[in-house]
C-alpha cells in the first residue's frame, strides 16, 4: 500500500494519479467523474453506431486508442483518461474499468463480455478506510491476450503477452506471458 503524501502543494488528483492515498470526494476528482458520466451517456447511446464513429468518441476521453480498437456499449469507467488501448483491442458488452491510475491494454487483446478491470484499491488499514482514503495500482494487459467473459482483474496485476484468462476467473496476481489461468483465485493450468 502506498504511503500518505502530506505535501500541501499536491492535489488529491495528483495523489490519485501517482497511486498515493487520496480522498475521492475532492471537488476536482468529483468534477472529472461527472464529466466522465456525461461522456459515458453519450458513448453508451451510440450502440447502433459504427465502430469507427464510437472510436472518435473514445479518443475524446481515453489516453490512447489504437486503430481498429472497439468497445461495444454499454461500457463503464471512472475517468477514461487513464485508459490506453492498443491496435485492434476488442471489449465486448458491459465491461467495467476502474481507472484511477493507468490501465493499459495491448494490441490485439480480446476481452469478453462483463469483464471487470480494477485499478482502484482500498487501504487494508481500517482507520485509513474510515478516513475515506483510497489508492490505485496500475493494471497492464499485454498483446494478444484473451480474457473470457465475467473475469475480474484486480489492482496491480500484469498479464503477459499471449496469455489466456478463463471465463469467470478472478485474477489476483500477475500472469506470465503465454500462460493460461482459470478459477477463483486464478491459477495456471498445465
Automatic annotation (TrEMBL):
SMART domains membership: Mac
Record key words, sorted: Acyltransferase, Repeat, Transferase
Residue span, Maltose/galactoside acetyltransferase domain: 13-67
Superkingdom of the source species: Bacteria
Family annotation (InterPro entries): Hexapep, Hexapep_transf_CS, Hexapeptide_acetyltransf, Mac_dom, Trimer_LpxA-like_sf
Coiled-coil segments: none
Family recorded in the similarity comment: Belongs to the transferase hexapeptide repeat family.
Protein name: Sugar O-acetyltransferase
Amino acid at each position: 500500500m502506498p504511503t500518505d503524501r502530506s505535501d500541501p502543494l499536491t492535489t488529491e488528483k495528483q495523489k490519485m494519479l501517482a497511486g498515493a492515498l487520496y480522498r475521492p470526494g475532492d471537488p476536482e476528482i468529483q468534477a472529472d467523474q461527472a464529466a466522465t458520466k456525461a461522456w459515458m451517456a453519450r458513448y453508451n447511446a451510440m450502440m447502433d453506431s459504427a465502430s469507427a464513429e464510437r472510436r472518435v468518441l473514445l479518443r475524446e476521453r481515453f489516453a490512447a486508442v489504437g486503430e481498429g480498437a472497439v468497445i461495444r456499449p454499454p461500457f463503464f469507467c471512472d475517468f477514461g483518461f487513464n485508459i490506453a488501448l492498443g491496435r485492434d483491442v476488442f471489449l465486448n458488452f458491459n465491461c467495467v474499468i476502474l481507472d484511477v491510475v493507468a490501465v493499459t491494454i495491448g494490441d490485439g487483446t480480446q476481452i469478453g463480455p462483463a469483464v471487470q478491470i480494477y485499478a482502484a484499491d482500498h487501504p487494508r488499514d481500517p482507520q485509513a478506510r474510515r478516513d475515506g482514503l483510497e489508492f490505485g495500482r496500475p493494471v497492464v494487459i499485454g498483446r494478444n491476450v484473451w480474457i473470457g467473459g465475467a473475469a475480474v482483474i484486480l489492482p496491480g496485476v500484469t498479464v503477459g503477452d499471449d496469455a489466456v484468462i478463463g471465463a469467470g476467473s478472478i485474477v489476483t496476481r500477475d500472469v506470465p506471458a503465454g500462460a493460461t489461468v482459470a478459477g477463483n483465485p486464478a491459477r495456471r493450468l498445465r
